[in-house]
Structure formats: C-alpha cells, structure tokens
Amino acid sequence: MAEEYTKKIKFGILGCAEIARKVSRAITLSPNSQLYAVASRSIEKAKNFASANGFPSTAKIYGSYEELLDDPDVDAVYAPLPTSLHLKWAVKVAEKKKHLLLEKPVALDVKEFDVIVKACEDNGVQFMDGTMWMHNPRTLKMREFLDDSEKFGELRSVHSIFTFSAGDDFLKNDIRVKPDLDALGALGDVGWYCIRSILWVADYELPKTVTALRGPIFNNSRVILACGASLQWEDGKVATFQASFLTNLTMDVTALGTNGTLHLRDFVIPFQETSGTFTFASKSGFEELVTGWVPLPSEHIIPTDLPQEARMVQEFSSLVLSIKESGSQPEKKWPSISRKTQFVLDAVKRSIDQGFETIEIFS
C-alpha cells in the first residue's frame, strides 16, 4: 500500500493537453498530492477539463495561466504546454516560487533549458521533467543487474526504439508536428525517451560523439517524423536509437554487456499498470549439438502499488514537502539528468541539420 501523508502538495495544471488527463489522475492517486487547480486560456475549456477528469468540486478553475500562478495556495505546477511555450511559462512559474514538473522535451535547445533551470535555482524551487518510466520500481531493479559485474559485466552497447503509428489526424493536426509549437517533432517526443534510456543504461556518462542516421523523414513543414542516431563513447561502447511516428508501437531497450544481456519490451509505458517485466540473460551459450540456450534467460516481474506516473508525482511531491517543511535544498539530480538528455538531443538535431556530420560532445 502507498504511504499515507498528512500534508499534501497542492498542484495547479497549466494547460489542458491530452497528457494532462493522465497526470491529473496521477496527482489524485499519489498519496502526498492534491489536485487543486487548472488553468486554460479559456475558462470554458478549463471547466470542461476539470469536469471530465474528476477534479474535486473545490478545485479552482482559471481562465488564464497568470491567474493560477498568482494563487498563493498553489505549491507546484505541472506544465504540459507545447515546447515552444516552455521557456516563457517555466520561468514565470519559478519566479512565482512554484515548484515545477515540466513535460518533456524540456526546451527547444540546451540554451533555453539552462535559462529554465537557472530560474528554478535562483528561486529555490524543485525542477523535474515528466519522464515517467524513471520512477517505476522496475527501473531500480534493472539497475541492480546492470551494476552486477559478475552477471552483466562491462557495458558494450545499448539499442533503444520508441515508435508508434500515428494516424492521419495526428500527422496533420497534433502539436508535435507543428513547427511553431513543437519543432523537434519525433526527436523531441519519442526520441527524448530513447536518449534518456541510453544515458540511464550508461549511468549518465555522456558519449564522445553523436551521429544522426541518414534517412530521417520530415513533413512538409520540415518537422521530423522519424529519425535515428548512433552514439559512441571514448571507451568504445556504442548505442543506437530509432524514433518514429510512422511505425508500429514499439518500446524496446536492449543493453549488452560482456557477461549479460538486458531486454525490455515496454520501457516507456508498461504493458500493465500494476507490474513491469524484463528479461535478463547471463553467460549464455548453446546446449550440446546447438539445440537450445543454456542457461535460459530469466524473466523478472516487478509489482508496483501505484502507476509509474503516480510514483513520479509522489517522488516530486516528497521533494517539495522536504523543501517546504524542512528547509531542504532542491534535489539537483533531476535537472542534471534532464540537461544531459537535452544536450544529446541537441547534438542529434545538429547532426541532422549539418548533413549527418559527427558531432563531438563537450560537456
């Protein structure tokens, strides 16, 4: 059972994007958070969103983002706005001393990212991006295998795929294909997850070089619909990823070590809310006469008391409560991880723009 809390963080939601439906439910499920307010540029849209998503009758409804930020009772803001609006509104959130849970990609580039995080640091507020799978207990369990030098050995390569087949309406009208709203397209959306998974496997060591794969697909507005890249580290380990709005739903990560292999088939959104699975093979070989594997890969099932998005909200709220109640400093781990993800994403975009040149990473 989830831990019960006597004090809860009051969340305001800035915007009524589709993903906000999922996170509003997560705020309700999290034991240390409260669904307190929602704002849209239209009061009617905000009212309809609150009604459709089970907001309590006491929830505040605002017809502008500014009104929500001026509410002194809002502790934290979840911002699922288009990426092009992140810089403006994230800085405003921080300047109003509200803690910030911001959808990914965090910014259009690392320069914008640094402005956002500096505003959070200057105002003493917690920052976290909305990469939900990071908070699944399965993620922690997989880390144990990757860190086991006997079972996994030395990391040599990582391969990540996140694709889904978007329909015609999405490809014409979704904000993720509009250059003025989310100019990074599939790279910023599904590619963010791929890059994060690679960095997570590599224990957040940045690669030495990044090279975009040839053959990215663009729409008529030059927004990326599908792309990929290869990453290489100074010690010789390598990684690849594929991100696309144009192929069947796939969420794979494979990490290969000198002694073991980790396979994950649903890393972004688990097949089930209540548990997550992964397979692990160690020191694999063939049976006599090459009739099968020995030993067989093992499947691991990790239960969870809350959906991973609710665990994300719970962890974020715990950090905020610690700041509010105990005077703790904001946790720097999360902005650091986010910046590395943004940094590599920028390098992929630059490689595409420069004709697939290899981009050197200087941290």
Write a concise synopsis of the structure shown:
The chain has helices spanning 18-29, 43-52, 65-69, 86-95, 110-122, 137-146, 168-173, 185-188, 190-201, 308-326, 333-353, and strands at residues 9-14, 33-39, 60-62, 76-79, 99-102, 127-129, 155-165, 209-212, 217-218, 224-232, 238-244, 246-257, 260-264, 275-282, 285-286, 293-294, 298-303, 358-360.
Descriptive key words:
Dihydrodipicolinate Reductase, domain 2, 10-stranded mixed sheet, 34% helix, Rossmann fold, 2 domains, 363 residues, alpha/beta, 6-stranded parallel sheet, 11 helices, 27% strand
Overview of the structural elements:
It comes from Papaver atlanticum. The chain is built from eleven helices and 18 strands. It has helices at 18-29, 43-52, 65-69, 86-95, 110-122, 137-146, 168-173, 185-188, 190-201, 308-326, 333-353, and strands spanning 9-14, 33-39, 60-62, 76-79, 99-102, 127-129, 155-165, 209-212, 217-218, 224-232, 238-244, 246-257, 260-264, 275-282, 285-286, 293-294, 298-303, 358-360. The chain is globular, with a radius of gyration of 21 Å. With 363 residues, it is of the alpha/beta class. Strand 10 and strand 11 form a beta hairpin. Strands 7, 8, 9, 10, 11, 12, 13, 14, 17 and 18 form a ten-stranded mixed beta sheet that branches. Helix 4 (86-95) packs parallel to helix 5 and helix 5 (110-122) packs antiparallel against helix 11 (333-353).
Order of helices and strands: EHEHEHEHEHEHEHHHEEEEEEEEEEHHE
The counted number of beta strands is 18
What's the CATH architecture of the largest domain? 2-Layer Sandwich
Return the domain count. 2
Poorly predicted runs are none
CATH topology of the largest domain: Dihydrodipicolinate Reductase, domain 2
The proportion of residues forming helix, as a percent range, comes to: 25-40%
Q: Can you count the helices?
A: 11
Structural class of the helices, strands and pairings? alpha/beta
Strand percentage: 25-35%
Radius of gyration: 21 Å
The profile of the biggest β sheet is: 10 strands, mixed
Query: CATH class of the largest domain, please?
Result: Alpha Beta
Cα shape? globular
Indicate the mean pLDDT.
97
Straight-line distance between termini: 42 Å
Domain GFO/IDH/MocA-like oxidoreductase: 141-262
Pfam families: GFO_IDH_MocA, GFO_IDH_MocA_C3
Organism: Papaver atlanticum
InterPro entries: Gfo/Idh/MocA-like_OxRdtase_N, GFO_IDH_MocA-like_dom, NAD(P)-bd_dom_sf
